Amino acid sequence: MPDIDIEPLRAQLGRTVVDEDVATEAPLRGMAATFDRDEPPPGIGEPVPPGWHLAYFPDAPKRRELAEDGLPTGRGVLPKMPLPRRMYAGATLTFHAPILVGDKLRRETEFSDVQVRQGSTGTLILATQTRRIYTPRGLALTDAQHGVFREAVPPGAQSGIPRRDLPPADLPWRRVWAPDSVTLFRYSALTFNPHRIHYDRPYAMAVEGYPGLVVHGPFSQQCLLDLLRDCVHRTIVRFDMRARAPLFDTAPFSVVGRPVGEDRAELWAVTPDGTIAMQVNAVLQ
User: Fold this and answer.
1) How many domains does the chain have?
2) Residue 1 domain-assigned (yes or no)
3) pLDDT tens, residue by residue, 172-189
4) Which structural domain range is residue 149 located in?
């Protein structure tokens, strides 16, 4: 078990960077195609669907700035972490007001939390970046993204994959996704995500010890967001998702859910074995 001094990381909490972009139409056409949406993508002046903001503000480091895993090092608000492997751990999305196609956007990204924990697969560092996106009308979205840094996998070993509980039975909302390498590549391209575990099968399996390509956490998040908005036809105010176990392109997975009272919903992404991969609590208006 590595001995990690968390204090130098905590000393950098509050680091903030500011970026600008424009909510253009072209990435939304890619999102609509990638997620098999039948309705036309929004045009100028229409709202950007929940979650599709991830097509904006692409991080564009030079090739020489990328680490072996494809991700950039020494950029943005996160300090260099003492553990090498990076994974998506979830997000808390708060939708304050619509982002409209054509809006000029400003994003403030803050390094807002860091913790060390012991998990079933070893030592973990949990880091949160809180991103606030503003339109000309004010704050539109707060996206607190949680990432996890893990220990390296010994050569020839398999990555530890936690097994979780079963979701509730007989849920009224259900959809099945069968991610393949083409779909995962398209999503990587749309979000300019160079992490090799999503498109480089030899790397994902031989270096990181996974059984196949890893489904992006934000891809699963979008599948859950789309299921929710298709089933309730209401405004999503808050969407709190926690990643419990990874999903892979080796078999289809399900997204399921149910309403809870008048203004809440619960959703899950479910592994091919029927266990929980992602868990969501949502607030509706």
Assistant:
1) 1
2) no
3) 999 999 999 999 999 999
4) 7-284
- Per residue in 61-93, pLDDT (tens digit) is 889 988 888 988 766 888 888 888 888 999 999
Q: For residue 122, what are the β-bridge partners?
A: 119
pLDDT on residue 129: 96
238 within a domain of the structure (yes/no): yes
What is the CATH number for 74?
A: 3.10.129.10
Q: Which residues pair with 110 in a beta bridge?
A: 16, 130
Decide if 201 is inside a domain: yes
Alpha-carbon gap, residue 31 to 29, rounded angstroms: 5
For residue 2, pLDDT beyond 70: no
**Contact, 73 vs 194, CB < 8 A?**
no
Check residue 160 and give its pLDDT.
Answer: 64
